[in-house]
Amino acid sequence: MVSSENPHVKLSGKIVSSESKTSPYINNAFDGNISTNFKSDEASNGWIGLKLDSKYLITRIGLAFPKDSKKEDYLLSVIEGSNEPTFYDSDIIYMITQELKLGEMNYLELKGNKRYKYIRYIGPESKYCVISELEIY
Question: Is 7's pLDDT higher than 70?
Fold first, then answer.
């Protein structure tokens, strides 16, 4: 649970993805190992995220991308929040518009006031969704 004393509590939940549950990559974005990656099967509309056990105010996102990535592999990708598993009511809570450090965690501070049960990272249009780690706080 997020409290005012410690707004950055790492959340966990059930992994949700654009890929089937049998994909060999589905757990890689949440395994704590920056050298493993989630990669979508399709070059557009790939995503990975979590279904949380309750609705939370998201205050921080941690992201890591492979060392051999290029900025085009993640620029204009988005973090969405939703309260529906289909994401039909989703809100963009962050769009990556700046270059990030590759091969290490990058933390994005969020300032919103809406609570979400579903959070996902969506890769940029016309690119495979590739991410090493995704942390939600």
Answer: no
Q: Provide the whole-model pTM.
A: 0.91
**Cβ neighbours of residue 5 under 8 Å, at least 6 residues apart?**
none
How crowded is residue 129: how many other Cβ atoms within 10 Å of its Cβ?
29
CA–CA dist 53, 32 (Å, integer): 20
Nearest to 75 by CA among 93, 100, 92: 100
Question: Can you list the positions of beta strands (E) in the chain?
Answer: 13-17, 38-39, 47-57, 60-64, 78-82, 91-95, 106-109, 115-122, 130-131, 133-136
Contact 88, 132 (CB under 8 A): no
Which residue, among 82, 48, 58, has the nearest Cα to 137 in the 3D structure? 58
- Per-residue pLDDT tens digits for 33-43: 999 999 998 88
The alpha carbon torsion through 27, 75, 120, 68 (nearest 10 deg) reads 0
Residue 35 C-beta-side C-alpha neighbours within 13 Å:
0
